[in-house]
Amino acid sequence: MKWSLSLGLALAAIAGAHAQTNTPKYSNEFMNLGAGARSLGMGKVQVSLATDATAGYWNPAALPNLQARYDGVLMHSELFSGVVKNDYAAFAMPLDDKTVVGATLLRSGVDNIADTRALINEYGQIQYDRITYFSVADYALLLSYARKLGPEGLSVGANAKLIYRNIGSYANAYGFGIDAGVQYNHGGWRLGLTARDITTTFNAWSINAENFKATTINEAIPTNSTELTLPRLVVGVGYQFKLPADFTALVATDLEATTDGQRNTLVSAKPVSIDPRIGVEVGYRNLVFLRGGAGNYQKIRDFGKQQQWKGQYSLGAGVAFSGLRVDLALSRLALDQSSSVNSLIVSLGYGFGSRAGGLRTSN
User: Which is it for strands 201-207 and 132-148: parallel, antiparallel or unpaired?
Assistant: First the structure.
Protein backbone atom coordinates (compact mmCIF):
# COMPACT_ATOMS: atom_id res chain seq x y z
CA MET A 1 0.00 0.00 0.00
CA LYS A 2 2.88 2.36 0.82
CA TRP A 3 4.54 1.70 -2.54
CA SER A 4 1.29 2.09 -4.42
CA LEU A 5 0.86 5.50 -2.81
CA SER A 6 4.41 6.45 -3.83
CA LEU A 7 3.70 5.44 -7.41
CA GLY A 8 0.43 7.36 -7.38
CA LEU A 9 2.05 10.53 -6.10
CA ALA A 10 4.81 10.33 -8.70
CA LEU A 11 2.39 9.92 -11.59
CA ALA A 12 0.03 12.58 -10.27
CA ALA A 13 2.94 15.01 -10.10
CA ILE A 14 3.75 14.35 -13.75
CA ALA A 15 0.17 14.88 -14.83
CA GLY A 16 -0.17 18.11 -12.89
CA ALA A 17 3.14 19.59 -13.93
CA HIS A 18 3.06 18.79 -17.64
CA ALA A 19 -0.53 19.29 -18.67
CA GLN A 20 0.56 22.26 -20.75
CA THR A 21 3.53 24.40 -21.66
CA ASN A 22 4.20 26.51 -18.58
CA THR A 23 6.66 28.41 -16.42
CA PRO A 24 6.00 26.86 -12.99
CA LYS A 25 7.61 27.87 -9.74
CA TYR A 26 10.39 25.56 -8.60
CA SER A 27 11.09 24.19 -12.09
CA ASN A 28 14.39 22.27 -12.06
CA GLU A 29 14.53 22.88 -8.32
CA PHE A 30 16.98 20.00 -7.89
CA MET A 31 19.56 22.41 -9.31
CA ASN A 32 19.18 24.60 -6.20
CA LEU A 33 19.85 21.99 -3.49
CA GLY A 34 23.43 23.17 -3.08
CA ALA A 35 26.87 21.65 -3.61
CA GLY A 36 29.64 21.04 -1.11
CA ALA A 37 29.29 20.64 2.66
CA ARG A 38 31.23 23.86 3.22
CA SER A 39 28.54 25.95 1.55
CA LEU A 40 25.65 23.98 3.04
CA GLY A 41 27.12 24.48 6.51
CA MET A 42 27.14 28.23 5.81
CA GLY A 43 23.49 28.41 4.76
CA LYS A 44 24.25 28.14 1.00
CA VAL A 45 26.27 31.35 1.06
CA GLN A 46 29.00 30.85 -1.52
CA VAL A 47 28.58 33.03 -4.62
CA SER A 48 31.40 35.35 -3.54
CA LEU A 49 33.44 32.77 -1.60
CA ALA A 50 34.08 29.61 -3.65
CA THR A 51 37.77 28.76 -4.05
CA ASP A 52 37.58 25.16 -5.28
CA ALA A 53 35.81 23.08 -7.93
CA THR A 54 32.39 23.89 -6.41
CA ALA A 55 32.74 27.33 -8.03
CA GLY A 56 31.43 25.77 -11.25
CA TYR A 57 28.10 25.31 -9.47
CA TRP A 58 27.92 28.49 -7.38
CA ASN A 59 29.60 31.04 -9.63
CA PRO A 60 31.73 30.00 -12.62
CA ALA A 61 33.55 33.33 -12.44
CA ALA A 62 35.13 32.15 -9.15
CA LEU A 63 37.03 29.28 -10.80
CA PRO A 64 40.25 31.35 -11.19
CA ASN A 65 40.40 31.37 -7.37
CA LEU A 66 41.52 27.73 -7.36
CA GLN A 67 44.29 27.26 -4.81
CA ALA A 68 45.62 24.09 -6.51
CA ARG A 69 46.27 23.36 -10.14
CA TYR A 70 43.75 20.51 -10.20
CA ASP A 71 40.80 20.28 -7.84
CA GLY A 72 37.96 17.81 -7.39
CA VAL A 73 34.98 17.57 -5.00
CA LEU A 74 32.56 14.73 -4.21
CA MET A 75 29.41 15.03 -2.10
CA HIS A 76 26.57 12.78 -1.01
CA SER A 77 23.48 13.83 0.93
CA GLU A 78 20.07 12.34 1.70
CA LEU A 79 16.83 14.23 2.08
CA PHE A 80 13.44 13.38 3.60
CA SER A 81 14.84 10.69 5.94
CA GLY A 82 16.92 9.14 3.18
CA VAL A 83 14.18 8.85 0.56
CA VAL A 84 15.87 11.27 -1.85
CA LYS A 85 19.53 10.65 -2.70
CA ASN A 86 21.54 13.67 -3.84
CA ASP A 87 24.99 13.18 -5.38
CA TYR A 88 27.49 15.69 -6.73
CA ALA A 89 30.91 15.58 -8.40
CA ALA A 90 33.06 18.38 -9.83
CA PHE A 91 36.51 18.89 -11.30
CA ALA A 92 38.36 22.04 -12.37
CA MET A 93 41.75 22.87 -13.88
CA PRO A 94 43.46 25.86 -15.53
CA LEU A 95 44.27 26.05 -19.23
CA ASP A 96 46.75 28.88 -18.69
CA ASP A 97 47.47 31.59 -16.12
CA LYS A 98 44.16 33.36 -16.85
CA THR A 99 41.71 30.67 -18.00
CA VAL A 100 40.09 27.87 -15.99
CA VAL A 101 37.64 25.19 -17.10
CA GLY A 102 35.51 22.81 -15.05
CA ALA A 103 32.85 20.12 -15.19
CA THR A 104 30.07 19.42 -12.69
CA LEU A 105 27.71 16.44 -12.51
CA LEU A 106 24.60 16.31 -10.31
CA ARG A 107 22.01 13.61 -9.66
CA SER A 108 18.98 13.77 -7.39
CA GLY A 109 16.50 10.94 -7.33
CA VAL A 110 14.24 8.43 -5.62
CA ASP A 111 15.09 4.82 -6.46
CA ASN A 112 13.30 1.49 -6.18
CA ILE A 113 9.73 2.79 -6.40
CA ALA A 114 7.48 -0.27 -6.65
CA ASP A 115 4.95 -0.55 -9.47
CA THR A 116 2.25 -2.81 -7.99
CA ARG A 117 -0.39 -2.41 -10.69
CA ALA A 118 0.14 -6.04 -11.81
CA LEU A 119 0.31 -7.44 -8.27
CA ILE A 120 -3.06 -9.20 -8.63
CA ASN A 121 -3.04 -11.83 -11.39
CA GLU A 122 -5.93 -12.86 -13.62
CA TYR A 123 -7.15 -15.28 -10.94
CA GLY A 124 -7.43 -12.60 -8.26
CA GLN A 125 -4.36 -13.84 -6.38
CA ILE A 126 -1.40 -11.81 -5.11
CA GLN A 127 1.72 -12.57 -7.13
CA TYR A 128 4.75 -10.72 -5.76
CA ASP A 129 7.06 -11.58 -8.63
CA ARG A 130 4.93 -9.34 -10.85
CA ILE A 131 6.10 -6.21 -8.99
CA THR A 132 8.50 -4.06 -10.98
CA TYR A 133 10.60 -1.12 -9.84
CA PHE A 134 11.55 2.21 -11.34
CA SER A 135 13.38 5.42 -10.43
CA VAL A 136 12.55 9.10 -10.61
CA ALA A 137 15.81 10.99 -11.13
CA ASP A 138 17.14 14.32 -12.35
CA TYR A 139 20.60 14.77 -13.86
CA ALA A 140 22.60 17.84 -14.82
CA LEU A 141 25.97 18.38 -16.48
CA LEU A 142 27.62 21.81 -16.21
CA LEU A 143 30.57 22.70 -18.42
CA SER A 144 32.27 25.81 -17.05
CA TYR A 145 34.63 28.40 -18.48
CA ALA A 146 36.18 31.32 -16.58
CA ARG A 147 38.76 33.95 -17.33
CA LYS A 148 40.58 36.68 -15.43
CA LEU A 149 40.22 40.17 -16.81
CA GLY A 150 42.51 43.20 -16.75
CA PRO A 151 41.82 44.70 -13.28
CA GLU A 152 43.42 42.55 -10.61
CA GLY A 153 40.83 40.41 -8.83
CA LEU A 154 38.19 40.65 -11.58
CA SER A 155 37.00 37.54 -13.44
CA VAL A 156 34.02 36.40 -15.50
CA GLY A 157 32.62 32.95 -16.25
CA ALA A 158 29.78 30.97 -17.78
CA ASN A 159 28.18 27.51 -17.67
CA ALA A 160 26.63 25.50 -20.47
CA LYS A 161 24.01 23.42 -18.68
CA LEU A 162 22.60 20.10 -19.95
CA ILE A 163 19.67 18.56 -18.07
CA TYR A 164 18.05 15.13 -18.24
CA ARG A 165 14.99 14.23 -16.16
CA ASN A 166 13.52 10.74 -16.07
CA ILE A 167 10.39 9.28 -14.48
CA GLY A 168 10.71 5.57 -15.16
CA SER A 169 9.12 4.56 -18.44
CA TYR A 170 6.43 7.23 -18.06
CA ALA A 171 8.25 10.39 -19.10
CA ASN A 172 11.62 11.98 -19.69
CA ALA A 173 12.88 15.44 -20.55
CA TYR A 174 15.97 17.05 -22.03
CA GLY A 175 16.93 20.62 -21.23
CA PHE A 176 19.57 23.21 -21.99
CA GLY A 177 20.48 26.50 -20.34
CA ILE A 178 23.27 28.99 -19.67
CA ASP A 179 24.56 30.54 -16.44
CA ALA A 180 26.86 33.56 -16.25
CA GLY A 181 28.80 35.16 -13.42
CA VAL A 182 31.25 37.84 -12.40
CA GLN A 183 33.47 38.15 -9.33
CA TYR A 184 35.77 40.79 -7.89
CA ASN A 185 38.17 40.39 -4.98
CA HIS A 186 40.04 43.27 -3.38
CA GLY A 187 41.79 43.12 -0.05
CA GLY A 188 39.55 41.20 2.32
CA TRP A 189 36.40 41.99 0.31
CA ARG A 190 34.78 39.55 -2.12
CA LEU A 191 31.94 40.43 -4.45
CA GLY A 192 30.07 38.01 -6.69
CA LEU A 193 27.08 37.94 -9.03
CA THR A 194 25.57 34.87 -10.69
CA ALA A 195 22.76 34.88 -13.25
CA ARG A 196 21.37 31.35 -13.45
CA ASP A 197 19.27 30.24 -16.41
CA ILE A 198 20.02 33.63 -17.90
CA THR A 199 18.60 32.64 -21.29
CA THR A 200 15.69 30.71 -19.71
CA THR A 201 16.23 26.95 -19.48
CA PHE A 202 13.98 24.79 -21.66
CA ASN A 203 12.95 21.26 -20.67
CA ALA A 204 11.28 19.35 -23.53
CA TRP A 205 9.11 16.61 -22.00
CA SER A 206 8.26 13.39 -23.83
CA ILE A 207 5.30 11.54 -22.30
CA ASN A 208 4.52 7.82 -22.71
CA ALA A 209 0.74 8.08 -22.89
CA GLU A 210 0.22 4.32 -23.10
CA ASN A 211 1.73 3.79 -19.67
CA PHE A 212 -0.51 6.47 -18.21
CA LYS A 213 -3.62 4.79 -19.56
CA ALA A 214 -2.80 1.70 -17.52
CA THR A 215 -2.84 3.59 -14.24
CA THR A 216 -5.82 4.01 -11.93
CA ILE A 217 -5.19 7.68 -11.24
CA ASN A 218 -8.10 9.91 -12.21
CA GLU A 219 -5.95 12.53 -13.89
CA ALA A 220 -5.85 13.78 -17.42
CA ILE A 221 -3.13 12.13 -19.45
CA PRO A 222 -0.42 14.74 -20.06
CA THR A 223 0.98 15.42 -23.50
CA ASN A 224 4.43 16.33 -24.75
CA SER A 225 5.25 19.82 -23.57
CA THR A 226 7.99 22.33 -22.83
CA GLU A 227 8.72 23.47 -19.29
CA LEU A 228 10.58 26.73 -18.75
CA THR A 229 12.89 27.74 -15.90
CA LEU A 230 13.07 31.51 -15.55
CA PRO A 231 16.27 33.36 -14.56
CA ARG A 232 17.37 33.92 -11.00
CA LEU A 233 20.07 36.32 -9.79
CA VAL A 234 22.29 35.82 -6.76
CA VAL A 235 24.41 38.67 -5.38
CA GLY A 236 27.05 37.84 -2.79
CA VAL A 237 29.28 39.95 -0.54
CA GLY A 238 31.90 38.60 1.85
CA TYR A 239 34.71 39.93 4.02
CA GLN A 240 37.56 38.09 5.68
CA PHE A 241 39.56 39.42 8.60
CA LYS A 242 42.17 38.13 11.01
CA LEU A 243 41.58 37.33 14.67
CA PRO A 244 44.13 36.88 17.45
CA ALA A 245 46.10 33.64 17.86
CA ASP A 246 46.10 32.56 14.19
CA PHE A 247 42.31 32.59 13.89
CA THR A 248 40.47 34.04 10.90
CA ALA A 249 36.81 34.90 10.35
CA LEU A 250 34.84 35.06 7.14
CA VAL A 251 31.39 36.67 7.08
CA ALA A 252 29.23 36.73 3.96
CA THR A 253 25.69 37.22 2.73
CA ASP A 254 23.84 36.23 -0.46
CA LEU A 255 20.67 37.76 -1.85
CA GLU A 256 18.84 35.40 -4.20
CA ALA A 257 16.22 36.98 -6.48
CA THR A 258 13.76 34.74 -8.36
CA THR A 259 11.62 35.86 -11.30
CA ASP A 260 9.04 33.05 -11.52
CA GLY A 261 6.33 34.80 -9.48
CA GLN A 262 5.66 35.73 -5.89
CA ARG A 263 7.25 33.41 -3.33
CA ASN A 264 7.01 33.07 0.44
CA THR A 265 10.26 34.92 1.19
CA LEU A 266 11.31 37.86 3.35
CA VAL A 267 11.00 40.15 0.32
CA SER A 268 8.00 38.94 -1.65
CA ALA A 269 6.55 40.58 -4.76
CA LYS A 270 4.98 39.40 -8.01
CA PRO A 271 7.81 40.39 -10.34
CA VAL A 272 10.72 39.47 -8.02
CA SER A 273 11.07 37.68 -4.68
CA ILE A 274 14.30 37.93 -2.66
CA ASP A 275 15.64 35.37 -0.18
CA PRO A 276 18.54 36.72 1.96
CA ARG A 277 21.07 34.33 3.52
CA ILE A 278 24.03 34.79 5.85
CA GLY A 279 27.01 32.57 6.61
CA VAL A 280 30.03 32.63 8.94
CA GLU A 281 33.26 30.62 8.92
CA VAL A 282 35.93 30.68 11.63
CA GLY A 283 39.25 29.05 10.81
CA TYR A 284 42.41 28.17 12.68
CA ARG A 285 45.70 28.15 10.76
CA ASN A 286 43.89 27.12 7.58
CA LEU A 287 43.50 23.65 9.10
CA VAL A 288 40.26 23.51 11.10
CA PHE A 289 37.01 25.36 10.40
CA LEU A 290 33.68 25.89 12.15
CA ARG A 291 30.71 27.26 10.21
CA GLY A 292 27.13 28.41 10.61
CA GLY A 293 24.42 29.84 8.42
CA ALA A 294 20.80 30.97 8.23
CA GLY A 295 18.33 31.62 5.44
CA ASN A 296 15.16 30.45 3.70
CA TYR A 297 12.92 32.50 5.99
CA GLN A 298 9.23 31.85 5.38
CA LYS A 299 6.01 32.90 7.05
CA ILE A 300 4.48 29.72 8.50
CA ARG A 301 0.96 29.31 9.90
CA ASP A 302 0.93 27.17 13.06
CA PHE A 303 -1.89 25.03 14.43
CA GLY A 304 -3.32 28.06 16.21
CA LYS A 305 -3.54 29.81 12.81
CA GLN A 306 -0.92 32.29 13.91
CA GLN A 307 1.68 33.27 11.33
CA GLN A 308 5.32 33.57 12.28
CA TRP A 309 8.64 33.74 10.47
CA LYS A 310 10.76 30.59 10.54
CA GLY A 311 14.16 30.05 8.96
CA GLN A 312 16.45 27.23 7.98
CA TYR A 313 19.66 26.99 9.98
CA SER A 314 22.83 25.01 9.54
CA LEU A 315 26.13 24.16 11.20
CA GLY A 316 29.29 22.78 9.71
CA ALA A 317 32.90 21.82 10.31
CA GLY A 318 35.89 20.99 8.16
CA VAL A 319 39.52 20.03 8.16
CA ALA A 320 42.13 20.63 5.45
CA PHE A 321 45.55 19.01 5.24
CA SER A 322 47.98 18.48 2.36
CA GLY A 323 45.36 19.28 -0.26
CA LEU A 324 42.69 17.00 1.24
CA ARG A 325 39.50 18.62 2.55
CA VAL A 326 36.82 16.86 4.58
CA ASP A 327 33.67 18.89 5.30
CA LEU A 328 30.53 18.07 7.26
CA ALA A 329 27.28 20.01 7.43
CA LEU A 330 24.15 19.62 9.52
CA SER A 331 21.28 21.39 7.78
CA ARG A 332 17.69 22.19 8.78
CA LEU A 333 18.52 22.26 12.49
CA ALA A 334 15.44 21.52 14.58
CA LEU A 335 14.42 24.52 16.67
CA ASP A 336 11.35 22.76 18.02
CA GLN A 337 9.69 19.35 17.79
CA SER A 338 7.62 20.34 14.77
CA SER A 339 10.70 21.11 12.65
CA SER A 340 11.78 18.85 9.82
CA VAL A 341 14.36 16.11 10.19
CA ASN A 342 17.98 17.28 10.08
CA SER A 343 20.20 16.30 7.15
CA LEU A 344 23.86 15.29 7.46
CA ILE A 345 25.96 16.17 4.42
CA VAL A 346 29.49 14.97 3.78
CA SER A 347 31.85 16.15 1.04
CA LEU A 348 35.43 15.36 0.13
CA GLY A 349 37.72 17.64 -1.83
CA TYR A 350 41.27 17.22 -3.05
CA GLY A 351 43.54 19.70 -4.75
CA PHE A 352 47.01 18.91 -6.07
CA GLY A 353 49.66 20.66 -8.07
CA SER A 354 50.98 24.15 -7.31
CA ARG A 355 49.33 27.11 -8.95
CA ALA A 356 50.41 30.73 -8.70
CA GLY A 357 47.83 33.47 -8.63
CA GLY A 358 45.05 31.67 -6.76
CA LEU A 359 43.08 33.50 -4.09
CA ARG A 360 44.65 33.03 -0.68
CA THR A 361 41.83 32.21 1.70
CA SER A 362 41.00 30.34 4.85
CA ASN A 363 39.85 27.27 2.90
Answer: unpaired
